[in-house]
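fyi for ur records
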Amino acid sequence: MTDDVLEIADRLWRGEIDIASQHPVSGYLGGLAEVGDGVAFLPSFANVSAFATGDGLVLVDTGSSFVAEAVHGTLRGWSPARLHTAVYSHGHIDHVFGVPVWEAEAQARGWPAPEVVAHQALPARFDRYVATAGYNEVINQRQFGVPGLRWPTEYRYPDRTYAERLDLEVGGLGFELHHARGETDDHTWTWVPHHRVLCCGDLFIWASPNAGNPQKVQRYPKEWADALREMLALEPEVLLPGHGFPVVGAGRVRQALTDTAELLESLVDQTLALMNAGARLDEVLHSVRPPAALMDRPYLQPVYDEPEFVVRNLWRLYGGWWDGNPASLKPAPEASLAAELAALAGGPAVLAGRAETLASGGGDGDGEEQSMRVACHLAELAALAAPEDTGVQRVRAAVFGAAARRATSTMAKGVFNWAARESATRADGDAPEAS
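which gave:
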């Protein structure tokens, strides 16, 4: 499996394989790649990195509950040593649910229980997840297109936390844990100087940074970029990300970290310049552009998140929730506005018909992308004005289905497919296939 993983990583880097075919947030890949003497990498929905020491294994991340047994079994084929320490790179549930398998093994064999280490903000994340379990079920079902997904309410909290930096020594091997706010407020990146290996968590994921997820809490793009710059100064030779494939070689690692930092910094600088000039959110969204050269990089493609969503998150971070439009400060109910606009247009069916035309490539829109965006607005207005009209619902299903097929990111596809399925069910009782 080592050759397969590293070969795929090399071909992805060279652009010989489309990253969409090896989506960094897809599913369990299986297998193990030994990327150094006593360093193993397990590709998964959330990757697991393992280090052999004189006192047992150290894991950076432990996987999701769905693959915990498989990860444990694979590692057992690599090393019989007990798990000494597990480091959570952050509290997302795909990274933190593998420890119970190791604890059960330790208890059965009479070994000391493993110690779990994380940033001090992580327990509050778990507390929030318990308090918002229903909401997280809804948004993750929608984001990933998994209607039966259930959100956990029991978590393995860390035994030890730290504030800014923690130096660990396990079996003669040193680990430096550093805090960074980036995708989350509780992120840890781990530097292993002896191996020149950097475990960056989700601060690099072989995709445009997940710094703008529309349905999740605040992200921190500027501090994210600062953390990447701090990593660069260490001159790592191997980068083991939380998603995607290893990056091997000092030059490649430097380029990956530098390019990701520059992308985030560009979005931050452009957004703040427009905000400081008094622009509304609408102007900011349609003016900020990521550097084209960076968006050509195979490891910065918008297959999970998108730069446009990062801009929205920056607005929320620096400017609050109001978008600058006085009418949206105290808005009318959406259905009331939709009914009024539909009446002015000649009825909901007129709005729906125009939406269908624009979505099919007709109309006078300024380019296909803008036409599709307007089509989505009109289809939604028509459905809000006439929620029981099956013809309107069919158009809404078709328009958002088309939008999903055009979308590149998991985030956009998830929302658009959800809307299409919702309307198809209302119209016919049958949901269309996800795109």
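The chain has two domains: 2-264, 332-428. thats all i got for now
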